[in-house]
């Protein structure tokens, strides 16, 4: 028997579709259903590697966690990872199809409908409910032709739609009414409920507007969801994390906000630790005097390195490194810290650029992408982070470059690809003094790693590190999904939503 289906669409990007999808997944799971998320096409730089070594969007991983199931590329058959302002790497069923300009992809995307429907069909056979998430807005009239992610997907899946508007940014009534008005009649008839999201204040003041909205749209409002402070993985650069802490804490960690920053979820564990500030910085002035600087992953290492150089951030980071501060690079950030970056095949920008020269490492970009789940431990390392020596870690690799260590370089970790059953270990990363780099995303996820880093930074400052605590990050995320579900249960008309789900679309 095929699954029941419901779809969440939004009036704009960041209206709250991903969180509402995750919350409904959690609620349906709590109510005893087998539920899975689905997003036919996702554009994001935050991605994840499954146990099968396949790549998918991070938002669907977060939603799968909320649903209590293992992430699968079936939940996100198409992933677009922007490489520049007008093009993306196109990933289909977890594997790289190639790079396309926006125009090329727009003309090509209808060819991907069979893969989308095959993935959706498999989920539909396995689960009781599939919660589909749209992308951006269904009312982008210049992009509606051959749509595969909003109303086009709703038609293919015969999914009733809940349309979400963001009241926090203002104009929510115009958002919702304007979106409905720009849809064709058949599409309008598929919208079965409206949701006002991110509301703060007295709902009774909103009620007259809700009545007028329902009257003009002819569609019921099925909930006014509150603005909730939650710590869950973000999808892309619209995250509010970048506008978070500005003041330095007792232990201050600064992440350089590269133009094409990716997988910044690597650093979320530090946000749960008391006394620790995790700041995303774009200018030398914002950098200030942190205890550790992190260079994160990026979708275009060479171009972001040039930005680092032109913006003055490279000079600021080099100055901190020479003062003995901890500099830690992950994936693309690790590559930047090396001596040279070469791209003979034009995988990124082509040509060759000089690295920051903090690690004796040379990187060559290759045509094949490394995609593996890994586990292992830190090697015997020295410097401020020496107490991480021997500490276990796990995560995943996802990169196009191959880095070679020069003689004086020492590796940071020893890892193996456990998902494929490999027993042979390999050395990863490099360090010199207080500069460290690794290819492993999620390297800080384990409690003992995040705690070890902060404890080492505190010790270096002469602070008592005995009281520093970290949380079990997985358990913490579970508590956040429960908090999300509880908030939605209180403010959504779930009885009506279940009726919408049961009725479906003929």
UniProtKB/TrEMBL annotation:
Domain of life: Bacteria
Similarity comment: Belongs to the CobB/CobQ family. CobQ subfamily.
SUPFAM superfamilies named among the record's database cross-references: Class I glutamine amidotransferase-like, P-loop containing nucleoside triphosphate hydrolases
GO molecular-function term, one example from the UniProt record: catalytic activity
Domain CobB/CobQ-like glutamine amidotransferase: 252-448
Pathway annotation from the record: Cofactor biosynthesis; adenosylcobalamin biosynthesis
Role: Catalyzes amidations at positions B, D, E, and G on adenosylcobyrinic A,C-diamide. NH(2) groups are provided by glutamine, and one molecule of ATP is hydrogenolyzed for each amidation.
Source organism phylogeny: Bacteria, Bacillati, Bacillota, Clostridia, Lachnospirales
Boundaries of every CobQ/CobB/MinD/ParA nucleotide binding domain copy: 6-228
A Pfam cross-reference name: GATase_3
Protein name as annotated: Cobyric acid synthase
An annotated GO BP: cobalamin biosynthetic process
Transmembrane segments: none
InterPro entries assigned: Class_I_gatase-like, CobQ/CobB/MinD/ParA_Nub-bd_dom, CobQ_GATase1, CobQ_N, CobQ_synth, GATase_3, P-loop_NTPase
UniProtKB keywords: Cobalamin biosynthesis, Glutamine amidotransferase
